[in-house]
Amino acid sequence: MPQPKDFGLAEDEQMLRDSARKFLGDNAGIETLRRSVARDHREAYESPVPPSMYDAALWRKIVELGWTSLAVPESMGGAGMKMVAVAALAEEAGRAALVSPLITTLLATCVLREAGTEGAKAALQRIAGGEAAALAITNADGSWEPGDSDVTAKVTKTGATLSGSAHFVQDARKVSFFVVAAKGDETVGLYVVDADTPGVTIHPDRIVDLTRDQAHVSFDNVVVPAQQVVAPAGLGDAVLRQAMPALLTVVAADMCGAGEWQLQTTTAYAQMRKQFDRPIGFFQAVKHPLVNMMVKIDEARSLVYAAACDVDSEPARAELHARMAKASASDMAAFCSGRSVQLHGGIGFTWECDVHIYFKRQIHNQMLFGDGIYQRAKLAELIDRAA
Fold first, then answer.
1. Which of 138, 321, 142 is nearest to 245 (CA)?
2. Does the CA dihedral 181-101-264-88 come out positive or negative?
3. In angstroms, rounded to a whole number, what is the distance separating the alpha carbons of residues 246 and 253?
4. 3-class DSSP state for residue 280?
5. Going by DSSP bridges, is the β-strand pair 177-184/200-205 parallel, antiparallel, or unpaired?
6. b/e 152-165 (16+ beta carbons within 10 angstroms → b)
7. Is residue 1 scored above 70 in pLDDT?
8. Are 133 and 295 in contact (CB under 8 A)?
9. What is the pLDDT of residue 282?
10. Torsional class of 370: left (φ above 0), alpha (ψ -120 to 50), beta (otherwise)
11. CA distances, 24 to each of 32, 131, 155, 218, 337 (Å)
12. What pLDDT sits at residue 348?
């Protein structure tokens, strides 16, 4: 079946993208971002507990706009929009380096909507109502493969009891509940666990990215009732694999938005900064890297929307294009981050220059769910199986 025109990015999706760009420009611009996360480097990196920046008023506005419910089916109180709309919103969030649990919640939504159970539907209704959620599926070694979870589940007739720790949990201190992958007898289940459940402890990590927080979350005999089982033991691994193309697409879209900010900001600086009585953008040594940034962003963006379109209309091809998108976006993020600092010259290395905020977000995103090298290895496996 041929892809729809413009990857299915129709009028509604374009209106969402444009309105999101305007809203974030008005409410979460670079000056607001700087005041939020880069006011004081000592507070950011030397305080006893890493800060968790969070603008509750901005989050309430985001909920009112319906962004958290974007990917939630209409039958559960959501907007039920396509994956291309989610990608467009994630791209704008990346362009603004948005400090909120929005991306984290969209990722959790992508997993929950693949489950189809009553527990998943209840969790999606909570998200549609404005609650934030995060995935807790990664072990201490950084693996998110379902069978590698460090959390174990003792399944009972009334639900399950969880023990162990989930690592690299994004925006853990901003969310209401976690979607936890836990092993039981070599099979994996998915469970909704409220952040304030007895036995849940959030241990903040100190990370370089200033636009989000991260933590490892421990579970000490945490009781999960049956109504909060998202996928029973034995089905969780399938749900996570089905959701992976959407997860990769959302993260890659965020990176494309951040890359676009890096390009536009660096280009504006090259037009303003003068050397030898000319703007530095006049020189080929500056022009060519800027063009290369643009080409890499456009390549990654095309793959992102191809992947999003496949999630909507060609699920069998979605993983292939999603891994291509994440590989391209990861390489683009590294390249654009390096060029944005380099082309800002001496000031590019300073705390006062805003490019460091995006540099750190990009490098963090680069590693989420695997960098370009990892994705290309997975692509090789896919192609080999299909041969």
1. 321
2. positive
3. 10
4. helix
5. unpaired
6. ebebeeebbbbbbb
7. no
8. no
9. 65
10. left
11. 10, 20, 44, 34, 22
12. 86
At 8-38, the pLDDT tens digits run: 778 889 999 999 999 999 999 999 999 888 8
Residue that is last in its domain, among 104, 132, 160: 132
Query: What is the per-residue pLDDT across 290-313, written as a single tens digit (0 to 9) for each?
Result: 999 999 999 999 999 999 999 999
Q: Which amino acid is it at 4?
A: P
| E strands in the chain | 133-136, 151-156, 159-170, 177-184, 187-194, 200-205, 214-225, 229-231, 274-275, 278-279
Residue 368 and residue 330: Cα distance in Å, rounded? 9
For residue 30, give both structure tokens. Answer: 């670079």
- Token pair recorded at residue 274: 């003068």
CATH number of the domain where residue 70 is located: 1.10.540.10
Instruction: Specify whether the CB–CB gap between 162 and 224 falls below 8 A.
Output: yes
Residues 214, 298, single domain; the answer is: no
Q: Could you tell me how many residues make up the chain?
A: 387
Query: What is the DSSP secondary structure assignment for residue 48, as one 8-state letter?
Result: S
Taking the C-alpha atoms of residue 245 and residue 321, their distance in angstroms, rounded to an integer, is: 8
Is the model's pLDDT at 318 over the cut of 90? Answer: yes
State which amino acid sits at residue 303. Answer: L
| Residue 213 near residue 52 (C-beta atoms within 8 A) | yes
What are φ and ψ of residue 224, in 5° steps?
Answer: -115, 115
Contact at 8 Å (CB) between 63 and 72? no
Number of domains making up the chain: 3
Of 219, 236, 253, the last residue of a domain is: 236
CATH number of the domain that 294 lies in? 1.20.140.10
282 and 150 within one domain? no
Residue ranges making up the domain that contains 272: 238-386
Pair 133, 194: CB distance under 8 Å: no
The per-residue pLDDT for range 232-287, each reduced to its tens digit, is 988 999 999 999 999 999 999 999 999 999 999 999 988 877 777 787 766 778 88
**162 three-class SS:** strand
Nearest to 9 by CA among 95, 113, 261, 17: 17
Based on the fold, state whether residues 110 and 138 are members of the same structural domain.
Answer: no
Give me the residue label for tokens 């539907």. Answer: 121
